[in-house]
Write a structure and sequence with these properties.
Distance between the termini: 81 Å
Mean pLDDT: 87
Low-confidence stretches: none
Radius of gyration: 27 Å
Structural class: mainly alpha
Order of helices and strands: H
Strand content: under 5%
Helix content: over 70%
């Protein structure tokens, strides 16, 4: 194997690694987006429960 072939092979390996890193970043970004959406949904649910609790507390309906 001559030096040109080695350099070409090294370039191919570098290109492959760069592509893999880009794909990994996309997968990590997807996970972060899903985590943010789930967290936002949890916060909305908590806020709604607090508001509903405040409204229902003033009604004094037996059993609620």
């Amino acid at each position: 194997m001559n030096i040109q072939q080695m350099m070409k092979q090294a370039q191919q390996m570098q290109d492959k690694l760069q592509k893999q890193m880009a794909e990994l970043k996309v997968e990590m970004l997807q996970d972060l987006i899903l985590a943010a959406i789930n967290d936002a949904q949890r916060k909305v649910d908590e806020a709604m429960q607090q508001q509903m609790g405040g409204m229902m507390g003033g009604l004094k309906i037996p059993g609620l």
